[in-house]
Amino acid sequence: MKRADFQGNIVGEGDDIAAIRPISLRAMSDADADRATALSAEMGWPYRSEDWRFALDLGHGIVAECAGRLVASALWWPYGDAFATCGMIIVSSSMQRRGLGRALTTNLLRDMGERTILLNSTREGLRLYEALGFESVGTVHQHQATTSADTAVSMSEVGDIRPAAPFDLRAILELDRCTSAVVRRSLLTELTRVGATAVIERNGNIQGFAVCRRFGLGYTIGPVAAKSVDDAKALILHFMRRKAGEFLRVDTPGDSGLSSWLAAVGLAEVGSVTTMIRGHRPDPSTAARMFALASQSLG
Ligand SMILES: CC(C)(COP(=O)(O)OP(=O)(O)OC[C@H]1O[C@@H](n2cnc3c(N)ncnc32)[C@H](O)[C@@H]1OP(=O)(O)O)[C@@H](O)C(=O)NCCC(=O)NCCS
């Protein structure tokens, strides 16, 4: 079997050295976004080049090139010094099973240092990540549909929901921190800048928030964090009503208990991934829970 060494050269028993096509690994830049979009499209993943740029602006990436072609990618996002997520780890079909995925992920792990790392793995990735010390800790369920106007309109609106104002960011960050034990300031600042954000407020206290932004084939609702499942549902319905007729996606953790409800309100489950952690698992507070992710990669 051929494998990629640390410099990314494809090596293997019996190779004619002259025939080896060098693979270069380098930092990803904005200029790679269009070719990365083509790479993810090859996997049937619906990222737009804007989604790649948004993800890269918030984190760091590595790409592999072979004969001028972008053949692999891997990104990671720091949330302080103790925690990170990684994702968008893709190896072009023609280059798979030669050690390239392992070489890229090993490079990411080195860059992430001592941080605890969370990722959401497809079935193909499980063996690679297990071999690199990740443990399965849960699931994420992908729900999506072009919603019909009828579904959302038939749901009554909760009166306590309002658009978020800039001064809500502090409460939003605090709720988000409760769900993950991590402060994700840059992520939430950017999400609330590019997306529409709604909060539920009662007696002057923010009980939950949700962000809805352009992503992939349409819009995604997430993150959604709330102190109760009913408030999380109300926030999701709020955006379903506003985006009636649009393609909507929600990635919900298995332990949120929302999966069957999402299907019942018209967002069918189309797949799931396995949440994996490497390192010390953060200890979130029980004051609020995460009901939908910003994305499977960003967490
Ligand atoms: C997952 C992926 C990145 C692996 O890249 P790769 O270059 O093929 O992986 P490597 O050759 O470095 O192999 C690493 C390990 O994963 C295993 N592996 C690779 N592809 C696999 C697959 N399709 N099914 C099961 N195991 C697989 C290999 O057997 C290897 O394990 P081993 O060293 O014990 O033999 C690649 O298959 C891919 O891009 N898949 C589609 C996109 C995707 O699902 N990405 C993961 C997102 S979290």
CATH topology of the largest domain: Aminopeptidase
What is bound: which ligands?
coenzyme A
**Which structural class do you get from the secondary structure elements?**
alpha+beta
Largest sheet descriptor: 13 strands, mixed
Distance between the termini: 34 Å
Unreliable residue stretches: 10-19
Proportion of strand residues: 35-45%
User: What is the global morphology?
Assistant: globular
**Tally of DSSP β-strands:** 15
Question: Element order, helices and strands?
Answer: EEEHHEEEHEHEHEHHEEEHEHEE
- Report the CATH C-level class of the largest domain: Alpha Beta
Number of domains: 2
Helix content: 25-40%
Q: Assign the CATH architecture of the largest domain.
A: 3-Layer(aba) Sandwich
Provide the residue-averaged pLDDT: 91
Our Rg estimate from Cα atoms comes to 20 Å
Helix tally equals: 9
